[in-house]
Fold this protein.
Amino acid sequence: MINLMLMPCTVELNPAPTAANELAAGLMRDAATISPKFLYDALGSKLFEAICELPEYYPTRTEAGIFATHGAAMARAAGAGATLIDLGAGNCAKAASLFPLLQPRQYVAVDISADFVTDALNRLQQRFPQIGMLALGVDFSSELPLPATVRAQQRLFFYPGSSIGNFAPDDALAFLQRVHGACGEDGAILIGVDLEKDHAVLDAAYDDALGVTGAFNLNILRHANTLLGSDFDVRQWRHEGFFNPVLSRVEMHLTARCRQTVRWPGRSRQFTEGERIHTENSYKYRQEHAVDLLARAGFTDAQVWTDPAHWFAVIYARAGAAT
Ligand code: AVJ
């Protein structure tokens, strides 16, 4: 018999035809785009883990420092026994580092890369057998479907790493409203937000000396080839990552090294030399704007923790009425 206690269950909800349609639509636009969610196949998730180790990529380590310093205060705010719902859980390391303080009753790891998150959760379940665990292979960027096995009580949505930055501000609001809707009266959010800072720091963080971010960005073409059946030649493309101060966002693009045609079943697209595919935005916020965004989504009683340099903020806010 299967030991249910130690066997996290996986649910996958990401129909491949939809991904192919979405990719094709983005590639046919005048200014071609590929959604950043397609950065995260199994290899992309590993490359992102490597990015988090880079000296230039400050967000992960800065946020980890904030958790280390203020984790106890966060746990006091949230209370023990929560239903911890980790959006974009990846290797689950951030949530796991908070388990001893947070003491959640259930841990729900949601990630678009179902296999990657399931592997991580299987390992984690052995270390924390007392916490009920569930892996969900879900693209939660446009809707947030949670199965009935996710406890309704004391939901704490965990959205670290400043992944909120991938949304344009209006879409970020809509996303946070959806999270708020899934919270229930006694729910809350614990979110990491990257803050505006010296542009040179931002440029380096998204265009590192080793080229790991470049590999991460280029890998989206391999993933597109798998999902769409396209014939992108990765060698014909170059990574660009830089801060756009007008829109307060880092942009990642892939730039064609030469004129070329990319083909996939039923279609093709020509690219001129120097033409770009926009693959990611990473918006940087001012602390007060982040708190305001949460308030507009219905969250109240925000508590903010930052690092000494004010490079990154972690915010806890409640779904219920203000007290
Ligand atoms: C996972 C979206 C928070 O925007 O910093 C890292 C992704 N892209 N390097 C970010 C990313 C390039 C990352 N987020």
Notes: Residues 287 and 312 are 9 Å apart (CA to CA).
